[in-house]
């Protein structure tokens, strides 16, 4: 029994180390892009559901962009808000005519609310390029200019990093959240570098309007409650004819706040994990094997109470995984100009294994709440 356990553990450890090493090579290719020399018209889309606390700051950041003002329009979608979100957007629109309020008051069965909100805004957009962020996003004043620099004639989609704010800066829990979010960006950027972009965040992404129309929007994914970002990216990637770029510049980052309560954190992570089996088969299989790998390490420490041999191999596997993760994350942190949370990497490595195991299961139960709608 012990030998069989160890065999399975090693059969998953070796590919993990090899894949992570191969993925790390992607960071070396991220600077290979063609800089655009045009300044096309841009449509910025923000979807808001009960965001009265966030939308003013978001709009202030968008209005402060250093891109030519006459080439910008801001499409702000009030998606069934019950607070003063719409009133605040109207107030801003009265002061700046580039801001347009789009209101959605109902839910269409078979069309996830946020995807429908984005789709509605894109159909009204007049810009050549669509940029998206969230109501709690805080884009730097150079965000639009930096993103557009990467839209060469051969680039159809640009994805970027949206780091968590760490306030106070010494907060270990906030650093751990920021580190976990950085790990997603690490996979997103490295995989894009090797030509197989796996994930992205809706807080910082953009694509040509023509691309959205060509792929028929969200297509078969439109009914899924989450995934307006990474599932759309998956859809674009699967067409295998579009160029996707990851932008590493610190001037293109869009900062946002981590979940402010434990409940919101749990709901958000369950939502993230719920998509694991909705990706193409090869990606889903990889995620399942990664889940099993973490499950084996976690169970190995418990089984190690009964078997010294299992404990030794489990500990060795954990250390090997930890070293590989450290090298990968260090390279990601340098590439993405994000070193703030690297001092809690050891804590994060220990917590990450039970985190994957627990949320991997909870996500498949699909009992989370997002935007006022339960899955």
What does the secondary structure layout of this molecule look like, with pairings?
Layout: H1 2-24, E1 42-48, H2 55-63, E2 72-79, H3 85-95, E3 99-104, H4 113-124, E4 129-134, E5 138-139, H5 143-149, E6 157-160, H6 172-193, E7 205-208, H7 209-214, H8 230-239, E8 244-247, E9 254-255, H9 262-273, H10 281-303, H11 308-335, H12 345-365, E10 369-370, E11 373-374
Parallel strand pairs: 1-2, 1-4, 2-3, 6-8
Antiparallel strand pairs: 4-7, 5-9, 6-7, 10-11
Helix pairs in contact: 1-10, 1-11, 6-11, 9-12, 10-11, 10-12
Outline:
The protein is an alpha/beta fold and 375 residues long. It contains twelve helices and eleven strands. Helices cover 49% and strands 13% of the residues.
CATH architecture of the largest domain: Alpha-Beta Complex
Number of strands: 11
Q: Spans with pLDDT under 50 lasting ≥5 residues?
A: none
Q: Based on CA inertia axes, which overall geometry fits? A: globular
What is the CATH top level name of the largest domain? Answer: Alpha Beta
Tally of discrete structural domains: 2
**Classification by helices and strands:** alpha/beta
Strand order of the largest sheet: 3-2-1-4-7-6-8
Provide the gyration radius in Å.
21 Å
Give the N-terminus to C-terminus distance in angstroms: 40 Å
Instruction: Give the biggest sheet.
Output: 7 strands, mixed
Work out the strand percent. Answer: 5-15%
Order of helices and strands: HEHEHEHEEHEHEHHEEHHHHEE
In DSSP terms (H or I, runs of 4 or more residues), the helix count works out at 12
